[in-house]
Amino acid sequence: MPFIDTKTNVKITKEQETALKTGFGKAISLIGKSEAWLMLNFESGCSMYFKGDDSPCAIAEVKLYGSASPSAYNALTAKLTELLSSTLSISPSRIYVKYDEIEYWGMGGHNF
Predict the structure, then answer these.
(1) β-bridge partners, 100
(2) I need a labelling partner for 69 at 20 to 30 A (CA). Which of 1, 53, 101, 108 fits?
(3) Share of the chain above pLDDT 90, in %
(4) Which listed CATH number (3.40.640.10, 3.40.50.620, 3.40.190.10, 3.30.429.10) goes with 3-103?
């Protein structure tokens, strides 16, 4: 049950959002998860500053029920960065990827 919450100061078009959704859906398998359980949120045009200026930047926060290996996280970070950079023209050096491993996760009125 992964959730990827992406925020950027770049305006995301519907076509770009679809491309990111598709790419993220494939990339999530790098940490042993499936698109069937993946939830995504995209917030574009945010007021964001990084390194003191508002040049294009983004953060993708990945919340994950359970955990994955460091090498799996490295692979996912590389892929999410590549997708955000190529789709939204953001320099990889201005993209953060953050992970939260969640012990308790609920859905449908109960916890897993």
Answers:
(1) 63
(2) 108
(3) 98
(4) 3.30.429.10
